[in-house]
Amino acid sequence: MSHIHYQELDKTPANHIALSPISFIKRAATYFSDMTSVIYHKQKFTWKQTYQRSCQLAHALHKQGIKIGDTVSALSPNTPALIEAHYGVAMAGAVLNTINMRLDNNTIGYILQHSDCKLLLVDAQFIEMATNAIEQNNLSITVIRIDDLHENISSHLGDMEYETFIAQGESDYLWQMPEDEWQAIALNYTSGTSGKPKGVVYHHRGSYLMSMGSVAAWQMPMHPKYLYTVPLFHCNGWGYIWTIALLGGTFVCVRNISTELIFNHIAQHKITHFGGAPIILGMLVNADENEKIKIKHLDYQVKVMTAGAPPPAPILASMAAMNFQVMQVYGLTETYGHISHCLWRQKWDKLTTNEQAEIQSWQGMSFPMNEEIGLMDKNGNLIPYSPSQQEQNGEIVIRGNTVMKGYYKNKKATQEAFNGGWFHSEDIAVWQEDSYLKVKDRLKDIIISGGENISSVEVEGILYKHPAVAYAAVVAQEDDKWGEIPAAFIELKKNFENAPPSLQEIQDFCRQHLSSFKIPKAVKFEELPKTATGKIQKFKLRSSIK
Amino acid sequence: MSHIHYQELDKTPANHIALSPISFIKRAATYFSDMTSVIYHKQKFTWKQTYQRSCQLAHALHKQGIKIGDTVSALSPNTPALIEAHYGVAMAGAVLNTINMRLDNNTIGYILQHSDCKLLLVDAQFIEMATNAIEQNNLSITVIRIDDLHENISSHLGDMEYETFIAQGESDYLWQMPEDEWQAIALNYTSGTSGKPKGVVYHHRGSYLMSMGSVAAWQMPMHPKYLYTVPLFHCNGWGYIWTIALLGGTFVCVRNISTELIFNHIAQHKITHFGGAPIILGMLVNADENEKIKIKHLDYQVKVMTAGAPPPAPILASMAAMNFQVMQVYGLTETYGHISHCLWRQKWDKLTTNEQAEIQSWQGMSFPMNEEIGLMDKNGNLIPYSPSQQEQNGEIVIRGNTVMKGYYKNKKATQEAFNGGWFHSEDIAVWQEDSYLKVKDRLKDIIISGGENISSVEVEGILYKHPAVAYAAVVAQEDDKWGEIPAAFIELKKNFENAPPSLQEIQDFCRQHLSSFKIPKAVKFEELPKTATGKIQKFKLRSSIK
Fold it and tell me: Which residue in A14, A41, A266, A509 is a FRET match for A128, CA 20 to 30 A apart?
């Protein structure tokens, strides 16, 4: 009986509002109106200004004919305009498709076409490439050019300049919250490791929950000063585009990343948080002392989030010495960015530096807004956590409200990714203590030699300990006898370039730490191909030895 | 076209899970299994144990025939069992109705009946009252008694003791998450401002979002040590029953609150956070120096949340001197507890102590998970914020996902509360700088005494039953200890004018009908000021006792 009475109570406009991160923008404009939202060079915006400019953009888009569910693409480094684009496009009910501007012309053309892009916001630095891509594909797209007066980057291409465009909109435009929190908010293409990039669709609900979860997981205080080194085209900058609004924080923008800029910005703006691929950490550690000295006076720890290949122990130790607190996170484009983090435990304080570095390389535990992370064996069975099973490999599978809606116009890939009611990451991991995860390898990067699994990540971890090694990548090389054998590609540190170690020396070094079947049978010294964000492009290495 | 493609992507078990705070309990058991969840006297539970005991409770309830949407009531101080009840009852899909055990027998009987309670968990201290209430109302309710071995409180009444009851359940019981996040999770009765108490229904979605929002608003770190001074029967302890699980924190339980206990617990368990009515703050400030000295060595600030009548400036100054950081919050039972907080701004650091105390008494800005707080004039128009309009009174109106589902079995009151698409708080406030709110008065003259709401209408109703009373009005009188106390003004019937009843007589009469905290502490006999139409002018009475 009681059941029925509870059910009688319906949703009303007073007690049910679609979850959407644009709510945080409005709140920031209400309560943090005079606080600084964005800093870029000498320009500073307040939250009131950022909000009003975003309203103008939303209104201008509306006047331009952009409707709910239309795709608006953006091709830009992390500038104030790209921040406004995240807010204004969502306020217009449209879907923001931020594109990696380091991609080649063809791929950008493919994305603009496949995404059904109606309008493109493009930084002047990339407008020539963009207009070429549009012409070559015969696309009908309105092009809004963003000139950068601070860096003297401008052009005459495109239909209109950004400032002229948003001037058409009113700063008090009455935008609407989405009626349905399942409505799409963003479309982010994967890097396309196998074939064409896939369009990952985010919804308002997920972006809202990612913001909330990040505050709890990273233990963020109000008013953080956030250096936006993570490109917004990666999972909308890991969702911090919304999180910082929630917290009334400040974005500090950079067009290009350099150690000098990072140290300068930290010192000048008292940066509290930033994120970066391990390559950024390496750059900071190896920077000149006269750059590092700029942050010597800081009386607080700068929190740094990193993802991807785990940083080697010496890098972590050096980061700690510079008063950086590094936390490893894990996630994919399909999960709105990070959904696990290596939360530090007090009990680990007493371990040695190397033991601590090993733990810091773990991908850790689930973010609070993510529901479940499991490990699945080849037969589709979950591998339960047990401290004694730390060697059983499994695929990371994920359930949660920050898992994508699906792939845009790709039902087959969507169904495969959600097979059995879990999102399949294609990453291989093992359980560590306290149900923490440690990623062993990408499913496709596992090397199977003589029936034995070899984790390329494990071998790379050893290679990184060798004093001459700057970067290392291990891939499978076909072999008549063993099926596959591990082959190593090594980029040497500058001071070893003229005196590289021998194959024998590398193998002897590995032998001290690895089973013999895991020792690279071939070693090649060369500069490694990397993505814009510093990820080593193993597929290029793989094809080079085929 | 793109619109359609975005819509094609349906919800799946991988990417859409009902928001529910019981997710946090499971996560705590997974990742914080060996950490302390609950401390009560010398007993400590880990999160694994608390989770397992909650599973046992859920299973035992299931075996007892409790189904989704059934009401399970609880009448208990903040003990480990009441914490488990929050988790276990929700895991069973049932709705937890925590009852204020300070209420009188009749009101408790009314709530047990009106709530359609199927099973009652009751602390042994209150079982006699509870069984009486059940008998008097001819209710058919299974009674599970909770003995307290730490304080030697036990009984033989009831159908079964709690430990025996949960021993019937398995610790690995496969409970289910709710299918629909709109499903009811809790039923919390208001104090009954006008007539009978109303049953406020919470849903899983709201309790989940309150937890997330509290972390951000109170800037809570991981693993807080939370002294549970706020009764769980108030909005499920302002939602911290879930928040602490989210953060892998520790509850420290107390049966009765005393300054000695609070100082001892803070020192012994290194309490980081607690909440309390202003009366608790007053008690702490006025405590003996030999109690206060116990926390002198603390090297951190204890964060204290307070709600209700704003604490006076000297209290706040003394709290600060003791290294307590006090934050004023505002909310109602209908909003799951707090939905606004007086977030401190750096710019206020330079003000005088009195100016700071004035600001600290503001109800402040919206929590992040709450969507909107507005002020509405008598004509139903929103009063826009403007720094120059700080004297225009308006009713606080609220929109958000932490606004109740509605009142249980009371469609009329539900519709009235949600009139015009806003929840009407019946509290009167004005705007302050930065869109902060300051509550001026309560529409219905609620008296807040020791953190408990007293409806003047209810007390007046009793007074009117006394044979000597012609007219009665009850207003709040300021009180150093209790914040406010109820003061009664009585106009006697003609034939009693020469032989008025004594204060004692009036109080004894009230005691037959009212909980003791509602009994007027002062009574004055006089002709009451009335309007032309005979309405009593309470504001005149209020000013006469200031």
Answer: A41
